[in-house]
User: Which sequence fits this backbone?
């Protein structure tokens, strides 16, 4: 068991915290990071791994919500565009502008020029922060993206938004890491069994360490419910009644081999009229998404989902051969929790609901609930939660503390200087999509200086351990030491995107994976390997207990 996690689980019962955050997805992670940096005594728990539900199933896009232009939600679009711009400025190595190359189908419900003018308005609303849009003639598309089938299109347009270089779950974990650096006590695989507020005004949360079975008691002045799709269920356990609730939209993405050599997002309108993307993902391509109303947070990919995505992509690209289910390397499937308020119109089209978040506060009990939200808007969520917690009487002695963003330029320059002196980039794998120094800085920031020290001490630490995964021995050693990895899936799917770019069968036979398991789990390496690949599957968790993640 990771030593850091073990120590944090023990500390969960030490005294009374100012705030307990339940849920380690993007909303919980930014709340904990902001509150801890501002001086609150914070604890965070999640019944599974950090970012292991909705926050690991996004499109890896940080976008300003161009689709909300159609419903005239210009205020929301403005807010999301400014949030996107703020992310790009704060994380220049991680969140970067990318061009969206959109095709306009003949006979579409909106004319080409109307959509082109919409992209210019979108650019204006976003303060001209990105490159300007442009109209795409069919001849231009044929020259620049010959993979696109133009038989259904009468032209297109190009505009900008942003995307994450690494996967969404890694981005979330970096906020957890930031919270830890500021003194937050965070632990994964700790389940909240429910919270009760005593006559002394302190919440008592009964919890369980799912790895050891030990029961815990966590005391806090404030509870922040950041359980994503399970907010409603968790509020029910605490006896909290709210005016908001969630409805769920299922999104599915399929990962296949790289379809276009260009680093841009190909954008289409699917057969049902909704946006459909072809997104670069290093050596792979992510295609989707679906948008299906579901009643339960527990979604799975169906044959109909696969057929919808494959049929749409095959009809819109000129491929050497049609994609089939045999080309699927990995799948993403998750629900988007959409916030619905008491004032929402009855019978409104659920598909028109936006991803805007809502924060509801019960001042009588010092309880905060976070509904909905988008990765793009995460910094605003952290700030808003901190303001609400402060309004409940929790002192935040460092109100201007910066809790997000990359380390200062001086730190980056020092890392790059040392990397050049070591000739680090000469060690870059021939199959890598970027220089090694760039990748290490983006993933680890100031911690990357320690990786250079590891490589200087032992050059073998600079070797790629799993071919095609772009992960060095020193990275895995760092993960084992400081990233609270309990299961192999935590590393392969969330701290990295290895499971998204290497098929399960190739991973099973990958040289180096057994060594990685030994570095991560020590004596438990074989058990964790078998658990992941199904030789000894983990016991199923009862449905009712899953509602506390």
Assistant:
């Amino acid at each position: 068991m990771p030593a850091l996690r073990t120590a944090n689980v023990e500390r969960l019962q030490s005294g009374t915290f100012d705030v307990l955050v339940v849920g380690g997805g993007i909303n919980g992670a930014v709340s904990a990071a902001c509150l801890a940096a501002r001086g609150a005594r914070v604890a965070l728990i999640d019944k599974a791994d950090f970012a292991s539900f909705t926050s690991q199933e996004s499109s890896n896009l940080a976008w300003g919500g161009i689709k909300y232009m159609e419903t005239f939600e210009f205020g929301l679009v403005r807010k999301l565009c400014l949030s996107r711009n703020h992310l790009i400025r704060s994380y220049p190595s991680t969140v970067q502008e990318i061009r969206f190359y959109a095709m306009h189908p003949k006979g579409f419900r909106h004319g080409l020029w109307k959509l082109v003018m919409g992209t210019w308005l979108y650019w204006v609303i976003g303060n001209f922060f990105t490159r300007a849009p442009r109209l795409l003639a069919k001849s231009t598309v044929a020259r620049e993206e010959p993979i696109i089938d133009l038989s259904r299109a009468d032209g297109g347009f190009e505009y900008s938004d942003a995307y994450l270089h690494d996967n969404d779950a890694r981005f979330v974990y970096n906020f957890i890491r930031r919270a830890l650096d500021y003194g937050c006590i965070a632990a994964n695989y700790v389940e909240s069994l429910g919270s009760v507020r005593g006559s002394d005004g302190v919440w008592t949360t009964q919890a369980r360490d799912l790895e050891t079975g030990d029961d815990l008691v966590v005391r806090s002045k404030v509870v922040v419910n950041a359980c994503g799709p399970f907010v409603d269920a968790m509020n029910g356990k605490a006896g909290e009644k709210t005016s908001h609730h969630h409805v769920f939209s299922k999104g599915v993405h399929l990962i296949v081999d790289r379809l276009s050599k260009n680093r841009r997002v190909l954008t289409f309108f699917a057969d049902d009229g909704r946006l459909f993307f072809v997104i670069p993902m290093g050596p792979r391509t992510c295609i989707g998404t679906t948008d299906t109303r579901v009643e339960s947070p527990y979604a799975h990919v169906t044959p109909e989902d696969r057929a919808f995505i494959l049929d749409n992509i095959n009809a819109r690209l000129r491929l050497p051969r049609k994609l089939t289910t045999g080309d699927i390397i990995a799948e993403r499937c998750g629900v988007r929790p959409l916030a619905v308020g008491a004032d929402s119109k009855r019978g409104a089209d659920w598909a028109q609901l936006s991803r805007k978040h809502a924060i509801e506060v019960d001042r009588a009990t010092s309880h905060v609930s976070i509904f909905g939200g988008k990765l793009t808007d995460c910094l605003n969520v952290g700030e808003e939660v901190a303001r609400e917690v402060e309004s409940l009487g929790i002192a935040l002695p460092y109100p201007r503390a910066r809790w997000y963003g990359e380390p200062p330029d001086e730190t980056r320059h020092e890392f790059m200087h040392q990397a050049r002196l070591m000739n680090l980039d000469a060690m870059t794998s021939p199959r890598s999509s970027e220089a090694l120094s760039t990748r290490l800085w983006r993933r680890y920031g100031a911690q990357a200086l320690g990786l250079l020290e590891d490589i200087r001490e032992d050059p073998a630490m600079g070797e790629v351990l799993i071919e095609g995964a772009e992960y060095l021995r020193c990275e895995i050693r760092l993960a084992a030491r400081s990233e609270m990895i309990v299961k192999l899936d935590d590393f392969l799917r969330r701290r990295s995107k290895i499971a998204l770019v290497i098929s399960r069968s190739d991973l099973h036979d990958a040289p180096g994976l057994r060594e990685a398991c030994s570095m991560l789990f020590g004596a438990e390496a074989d058990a964790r390997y078998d658990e992941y690949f199904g030789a000894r599957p983990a016991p199923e968790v009862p449905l009712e207990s899953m509602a506390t993640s």
Remarks:
- DSSP finds 19 helices and 18 strands in the chain.
- Residues 536-549 have pLDDT under 50 and may be disordered.
